[in-house]
Amino acid sequence: MPLYGTALLAGCHLTGILLGELLGRALGVQANVGGVGIAMLLLIAVRFHGHKHGWLQVKSEEGVNYWAALYIPVVIAMAMQQNVVKALSGGPMVLLTAIATVTACAGCVSFINRREVITADEAPKN
Amino acid sequence: MNTLLQKLAVDNGLILSFAIVGLVVFCSGFLSRKLTFGRVQGSAIAILIGLTLAYVGGRMTSGSKGLADLAFFSGLALMGGNMLRDFAIVATAFEVQPTEAKRAGWIGAVALLIGTFLPFIIGVSIAYAFGYRDAISLTTIGAGTVTYIVGPVTGAAIGASSEVITLSIAVGVFKAILVMVTTPMLAKFMRLKTPRSAMVFGGLAGTVSGVSAGLAATDRSLVPYGALVATFHTGLGCLLAPSLLYFIVRALV
Questions:
Q1: What's the pLDDT score for residue A104?
Q2: Are residues A63 and A103 in the same domain?
Q3: B206 CB near a chain A CB, below 8 Å?
Q4: Directed axis angle between helix B208-216 and helix B195-205, to 10°?
Q5: Cα(B253)–Cα(B11) distance, rounded to whole angstroms?
Q6: Under 8 Å CB-to-CB from B52, ≥6 apart: which residues?
Q7: How close A112 gets to chain B, by Cα (Å)?
Q8: Which of A32, A40, A49, A74 is deepest in the core (most CB within 10 A)?
Q9: More confident residue, B122 or B8
């Protein structure tokens, strides 16, 4: 049943966020430390276990895949509620800082990624 | 009639959002095929349309949540809010190949550290050039350059003025939007092709919203790898900025 998949996803999500909160408290930080990332790792582990022991059914996986497919629409809805007016009206310092940062980071990403050796089995992704 | 529609929209906010976003995606796909012959991805156009609508909404209401501040579109706040966004991001982890993620784990962590220090240094330097001299303001603006959540969290922790905190949020929000818009254009330059390259990008670009939208507009299959790293960004920033980074700045000025 697809609901089992969605419930599993919800379980991983909540556990991850909770662990992220606890990690934040333990470190004395007023923020969630990697909760979503932890939830993702949990889901990867659960899927691996389910496939290995055969308890995860294709029907249940549909309940996760549907939400993964909703990802782009959700991101578009997120774009629709960004505070664009404020971002554009921040004055020269705000614009300059953000542009300089994005440029420098893109340069760094490019520098690191140009060092990656692409083997035949992983080259064309799409 | 008008009040009837308004009531329908408010009572069914989330459902209306699905319909609106569906329409935007459909139009973007059409524009992508007919206008750019598939060269610009449909989702990139959809995100640009979304940001434009957010600008229009912000202008009309002078609120802080773009189009979602109009009562008619308030459901967008739920659909595009943190809860569903994070839920959908977690769901994409189902597509992750554990071997790929494991192999690139260390470089992702390195990218995450550079992605915290580099923006911070740039933010502090530019704030210094614009005349800020006290360690608290410099640190808060530098922290905002990491992500728009790290800025206010740090500012509140070390006691920055509300004016400086507002500035730090503005820097972070503008950076996130810039990442959303420029990632598809810079994808070739940044060599965004493999899971590993997406993890490097997720660590360096920061801001979950920027990374998630930027990768969505570039190559959907890379999203989970970038997001996996990027979600640690805010936590790491909130950990380092009010402590280690603040002490360094205080020692320097």
A1: 95
A2: no
A3: yes
A4: 140
A5: 55
A6: none
A7: 8
A8: A40
A9: B122
Is A66 part of a structural domain of the chain?
A: yes
User: Which residue of A13, A74, A94 is in closest CB contact with B167?
Assistant: A94
> Cβ–Cβ of B178/A98 closer than 8 Å?
yes
Helix B233-240 with B135-146: angle, nearest 10 deg? 170
pLDDT score recorded for residue B146 = 94
Q: Would you state the structure tokens that stand for residue A34, as one six-digit string?
A: 């990697």
Q: What is the pLDDT of residues B57-115, one digit of tens each?
A: 999 998 888 999 998 899 999 999 989 989 998 999 888 888 888 888 889 899 999 99
| Residue B217 and residue B110 in one domain | yes
The closest alpha carbon to A83, from B89, B1, B166, belongs to B166
B174/A31 touch (CB, cutoff 8 Å), yes or no: no
pLDDT at A30 over 90: no
Is residue B24 within 8 Å of B46, Cβ to Cβ? Answer: yes
Lowest-confidence pick of A11-15, A44-48, A117-121: A117-121
Domain membership of residue B64 as a residue range: 2-80
Mean pLDDT calculated for residue range A83-94: 84
Which of B90, B97, B183, B240 is best to mutate for the A interface (most A CBs within 10 A)?
A: B90
d(CA B151, CA B155): 6
A119 at interface of B, judged by CB pairs closer than 8 A: no
Domain range holding A87? 83-115
pLDDT at A14 over 70: yes
Distance CA(B210)–CA(B152), nearest Å, equals 18
Number of H helices, E strands in chain A: 6, 0
| Contact predicate B241/B154, CB 8 Å | yes
Nearest to A33 among B58, B86, B239 (CB): B239
* ipTM score assigned to the predicted complex: 0.87
